[in-house]
User: What shape does this take?
Amino acid sequence: MSDKRRRRVPRQVREQQIIDMAVQVFAKRGYHPASVDEIAELAGISKPMVYLYLDSKEGLFLACLRREAERLATAFQKAARGVGSPEMRLWAGLSAFFAYVTEHRDSWVVLHRQTSELSEAITEEVARARRAVMAEVAGLVRDGIAEAAGPVRPGDEEADFVAHVLVGAADSLTDWMERHPGETPDRVARRLMNMVWVGMRNVLGGELWEPPEPPHAPEGPEAPDAPHAPDVPGPPSVEG
Amino acid sequence: MSDKRRRRVPRQVREQQIIDMAVQVFAKRGYHPASVDEIAELAGISKPMVYLYLDSKEGLFLACLRREAERLATAFQKAARGVGSPEMRLWAGLSAFFAYVTEHRDSWVVLHRQTSELSEAITEEVARARRAVMAEVAGLVRDGIAEAAGPVRPGDEEADFVAHVLVGAADSLTDWMERHPGETPDRVARRLMNMVWVGMRNVLGGELWEPPEPPHAPEGPEAPDAPHAPDVPGPPSVEG
DNA sequence: CTCACTTCTTACTTAGGAGTAAGTTTACTG
DNA sequence: CAGTAAACTTACTCCTAAGTAAGAAGTGAG
Assistant: This one.
């Protein structure tokens, strides 16, 4: 804006700028519809620079993946380290994960849902199908809990939460099953029920799991309220 | 095979053949890298036919999505209907889901992971990152359980199962959070812990959830052993 | 100043694939 | 055996976007 002529910038810095913009564009458009020209322009640079520094479109995307995966992993690990019991560490890690993907939505989209590659109509179709499944599962959850525990009065929001857990877990277990051909769907479903059924009642009753007393550290130096979440780690300081 | 010259075939049938092949190709290559020419050729037909019947590449893909989503939903619903309590219905539905995606992998890939759109190297990178996360979470799970419940001896396979549930649920809750901006990551993480922590012990102890006695149906007409899972519904008989 | 090195640009080439115009063959119908 | 409608083909057009060749301009060292 202020500087009319574009300042020359050392390679390391320019690379990060390119990756910054690439993450945005890949998140918005998806891999194939994203054009290197657009990324270059947003980075205030011309296309051949991108090829000089990152080799190819694929190289560029790989660089994005690596950097963003590293940042997310770091956020998780940093949070999970330090606190005492594994239970606490897991909780802190999860919390940091959710915080990170909230802050850095683009990053998450690039790492995860490459569905945005598809056109509006197609994305909508996918979303609609998923929503239908969620609604169905949430309904079952609500009925089941109402029947089992009488007075709990599951709210819609909470049943929806449980439905997301179930559907997400089911998605993910699909991969797990590929590496365990001996397992039958029946057994997998039983295991999932086993793992989740009791907890559903708690969640739907509005209970919140509370971190237990840290067994080895009698009093922590941390603030008593928020665990670690707000201090989302910034990028591991790449720019000089 | 036997007929040398290509037999003419009515539109309804040909459409289904095209969609059959499209599902395969989209699953293998992903949306953009898939070429309509290839799909047409596999369907034993030339490209303009595809455009005549399905309008566009997008229309073709939408047709695939609709048909496959419908089949999967039907599989779930058919299984969930009939059995008594919601708990049972949920279990039967999950079981049918896992059975369906095992049988119809292409279908699932098209509905779910459009990541195969990306090149070999990129897919590998994504898979690697995910595996790393899984390993980390599985480690925490193992430690946590070992500490909490002394003698349970969580096997690698079981810890891995729990890790998949957690990571998949976390993935999915990302979407849920978007529609609940008031929720903090901290609260979401607590809820997830609440829902899952107790169940982890059971799963890692090797326990399997057993379907309870159906409260309203004293004796079902079904076979007592398998619920509904093996009778995966075939396509809802589209071809005339 | 000038040599050498890095940053950066303009202006291409090229390939692949979506979509179409126009015509051809098969098969049923009276 | 027409005649007609549906099934089907060949042979294109055209556009987008990846990737590159060749050189210009800023920058620091002697």
Summary: Chain B touches chain A through 98 residues (CB under 8 Å). The domain at 1-54 of chain B is CATH 1.10.10.60 (Arc Repressor Mutant, subunit A).
